[in-house]
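Let's sit down with a protein and look at its sequence and fold side by side. Which protein we use is up to you, so please pick one and set it down. Label the sequence line and the structure token line clearly, so we can match residues to local backbone shapes. Go ahead whenever you are ready, and we will take it from there:

***
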Amino acid sequence: MFKYIKNDLPASIVVFFVALPLCLGIALASGAPLFSGLIAGIIGGIVVGSLSGSKIGVSGPAAGLAAIVLTAIGTLGGYENFLVAVVLGGIIQLVFGLLRLGIIGYYFPSSVIKGMLTGIGIIIILKQIPHFFGYDPDPEGDFAFFQVDGENTFSEILNSINHITPGSLLIGVIGLGILLLWSNVLSNKGKIFQLIQGPLVAVVVGIIFYVLTKDSSSMAIQSSHLVSVPVPEDFSSFLGQFSFPNFSVITNPEIWVVAFTIALVASLETLLCVEATDKLDPYKNVTPTNRELLAQGTGNILSGMIGGLPITQVIVRSSANIQSGGRSKMSAIIHGFFLLISVILIPKLLNMIPLSVLAAILLIVGYKLAKPALFKTMYNLGWKQFLPFIVTVTGIVFTDLLKGIGLGLAVGIVVILIKSYQNSHFLHKEGEDVDDGKIKMTLAEEVTFFNKGAILKELDRLPEDSYLELDVRKTRYLDNDIIEILEDFSIKAKERNINIKLISERGTIENPESFIEFFKLKPKTQLN
């Protein structure tokens, strides 16, 4: 468990600083007590992180559920009544996991997943610009285009230009400079700069700046522009921050409607995040989706029992974990302990952190998710990949996460149906000789992303030290999703000592270096 602690500890610090303002901001946007967001972050890190099979996924309160939570609290007559729905939603998620519905996660097209990541990256950048300028009426974690303060994403940016807080902007620029210097220059200068992450240095400098300028009339940063963690006066008041479900309303049909809504939306958001983080993972680990649903369900039951918000796996935290070098689930677990310890022991110190410094950290996270080169890459893959991608990006930016993904999925399905109208598709596996470890898999004439789950399952079941003959001579259309699965599998195959023989009309090749490059070759090219 501690094998990669030198990677996981620095990554957990970065995830902690990303998660802290989001936990508070999502609670505020949800109309829930601020402490409820921290509870969800702590349980998402420690409990869900421990039970999950994901190496790099990080869970916590979800921005995609904020509007649902805000409406449900009013509809159900109070936060304690709403907590009953959270607990029941967790139980329903356990049922989803036991019914093995996690397989749904394998059927999201990669173009939509990449669009989701890019869209989230863009919306992070757009939403953090006002905080970077020191303009903070909209809470952190509100990723919807139409905001709770009555503005929209772009009008908020325009307003922030007219309401710049000099001290916040200055320390934000300094923090951003530290982050860029650390990632582009200092991280290559020695292990000490890899162990001590740039975000930690930026936050420490931000606290020092606040302390030194708090008595200045021009550069002072007001409390509204700082992190705002609840500060209990004593242990009794700390315990008073917990809320408990009012189970007397369990027979109310509206409770069950909200519970099922939470379970469904949280499960879909988690499965989308699992698919996305597995694609971002440089080590190409595959997360067991049914186990993830069981972990999320357990986390939501516990969160609801002590007053926390609904939990999902969250792409912002997970991508920050990957970008910071996290290798195992310990980074998620440790970040949860950091949240727990800090809110108990040092809430006053946390409340000295300028939001603009945390905005600088999130700006870097957003840029790494939405690099401009990806648009060109997706365009070059053809309209069948680019159209669902760009629709997803646009939908997320101009509506919200769930609506944007829904639009992208709808377009992706239409594209597949157009192609499927012309050609049928299926997958079958030919003879399997267990004695010599040779297994032959023949792909059909048309293989689309609908076949992802079946192919991934077959490849994952291959024993170590086996020999796979992959015959694609009959294949006329091979979806980009399938090529990416084969590319990822070739990396894992080397670790499991699985040899691959690829048979195609272009010839035969042993252990191809890159499936992506192979399938880009023109038909006239011959390989021997």
In short: Strands lie at 59-61, 311-313, 427-433, 438-443, 446-447, 467-471, 477-478, 499-504, 507-510. The longest strand covers residues 427-433. Residues 422-429, 522-528 have pLDDT under 50 and may be disordered. Residues 5-364 form one domain.
